[in-house]
Amino acid sequence: MNGYFCYIVQCADGSFYTGWTTDPERRVRQHNRGQGARYTRLHGPVRLVYLESLPDRSAAMKREVSIKRLTRAQKQALASTYNQILE
């Protein structure tokens, strides 16, 4: 995988965390080892439920902000479309 990605992980308590990265697999491992964001340290472990490829860092950061503004139901809808692609 090359480029920039915006992602959503679902925490053990069912809550969602959104971020951006250049390496989604590494980032999920970091979250699960307690090396990610404070939020995921407190609510982990996590599993990747949504991933979106973006052309550059700026676009990834802007997309992260826009996803964070979504309601829980809208985040669940994004996650369900991603899961359908994987199946």
Automatic annotation (TrEMBL):
The protein, known as: Excinuclease ABC subunit C
Domain GIY-YIG: 2-84
Stated family: Belongs to the UPF0213 family.
Pfam families: GIY-YIG
InterPro entries hit by this protein: GIY-YIG_endonuc, GIY-YIG_endonuc_sf, UPF0213_domain
